[in-house]
Amino acid sequence: MTGRSPKPLAPAVLTGLASRWALLIVDALAEETLRYTRLHGRVDGISHQMLARTLRALERDGIVVRTAHATVPPRVEYALTPAGRDLRTRVAGMCAWSRAHLPEIEAARERFAAEAEHTRLRRAGLAAVPGGPPAAPLTATDALAGPARRPGDGGREIGIDRADPFLVPRANAAWARLALRYRLYGPAGEFLLATAVDDGPPRWRAVRVLPGADLMGAGAAAFLGTAAGRPEFAALSPDGRVALRATTGAARVRVIAVPTDRPGRDAASC
Amino acid sequence: MTGRSPKPLAPAVLTGLASRWALLIVDALAEETLRYTRLHGRVDGISHQMLARTLRALERDGIVVRTAHATVPPRVEYALTPAGRDLRTRVAGMCAWSRAHLPEIEAARERFAAEAEHTRLRRAGLAAVPGGPPAAPLTATDALAGPARRPGDGGREIGIDRADPFLVPRANAAWARLALRYRLYGPAGEFLLATAVDDGPPRWRAVRVLPGADLMGAGAAAFLGTAAGRPEFAALSPDGRVALRATTGAARVRVIAVPTDRPGRDAASC
DNA sequence: CGGGATCCGGAGCGATACTG
DNA sequence: CAGTATCGCTCCGGATCCCG
């Protein structure tokens, strides 16, 4: 048994146990036989239905015995068979493993997520910089949500026709122009980018532009939009005073600069 | 650690490992680091895509390390991390369990299936009898397949309007009448019933009728049709000489008796 | 109380095609 | 060779209702 297990054995049995409910139920029945409802309370999160189904599957495989007393109201008890008790020790081994390595696992997940983010950024021509997101006057959701505000309050908007064959370079140029004019970049060229996270609201990330960056093409294709030439993202200057946003409408791609505090002279007159 | 494991720990990690592919991959990487394609050959049954996805998940959780050599063609190797090697011993424990208890498990499955069949039969008002299915001149699929033959060859058909309020008792009576007239029952009242199996063709099962049987109502609802009053099944006399079939058409339920060998006088004239 | 039957959305998974 | 992208389907799993 030092090597791999014989081919046909593992799959046949594993398929039955490869549900997390099966493992949790075996664990819950570890030392007492339980009635249905108590068991339901123990497994925590399982639905009424899944408990019944998984119990039947376990009974089918001889891991659990079901004892129904013919009383009113009915009284049904579930317990592990000898095979089930044996299995339970193995399951406990896996649980012990998870407890022992939990910090490692979480660290690995964070490293993996960071690595993935860096890869996406690099594809867009950006580099993450250590500067963390300061308390911004605008939240990422604010800057991203809703129809883009018209920049009547001292900002500026540039639109490019989506049919334009030079859409991507022109949008990139517009972005660069507005970023410079409205002082998006901090002293080291850094600014805040709203990166979409899988679950939860977007998060501000401090980045800087690398030579040859292509936010509207490769960047939009990577994660700053839905596809190349369809950007959908927002940026914020490190001091939080100006927001830049790129958004894709039906006919045109728009790049918008909006001062976020006291709109007026100093930004627009620059 | 003698009791149940702490609630929040198990689910978090188990969800990642509750896929049979994850366990099989960990097992496959037990002692050698493998390249993608070799690994694909080892895991046996996994799709190209699932291997890639599961590997990424395992890498994400720090169970597997991916080493990509920047050569042409690319060369990527997968190996277990220390945590992965630790996990692997636990997985091996589960595999050992499956090997040790495999006969038990298969026996339990057969017992369960038999029990389920008996329950279904009892619900229809039937009892299984030890008599096994002899080599019947008709296979179950023959008797069940296609549109029911008109009994021009010495048999008899009785139809009942599906709108008839007494459909079920009348169909039951028709079945009983034809069963007696065409000698469906053997000496002990037994006959062969084509029971639908989940996978594979129908199988002949030796049964006998219990008092108060209701093949067309409860029986059809249980497994001899699609619902009460919609029977769809076939029976065969133990000697295989006569087939009875109940089938549900658009307007009527039909009960049909068909001699299977030398149609003619002795059966029809009875 | 302890389920079963049914409906339905979403995740899992496979087949195929394309890429560096 | 070692993936990723897209599509489509199946089955998991939950919510709800019903039954003995």
TrEMBL record, chains A, B:
One of its GO terms (molecular function) is DNA binding. Residues 5-106 form the HTH hxlR-type domain. It comes from the Bacteria. Gene3D superfamilies: Winged helix-like DNA-binding domain superfamily/Winged helix DNA-binding domain (1.10.10.10). Keywords: DNA-binding, Transcription, Transcription regulation. The keyword Transcription applies. InterPro entries: HTH_HxlR (IPR002577), WH-like_DNA-bd_sf (IPR036388), WH_DNA-bd_sf (IPR036390). The keyword Transcription applies. Pfam families: HxlR. This is HTH hxlR-type domain-containing protein.
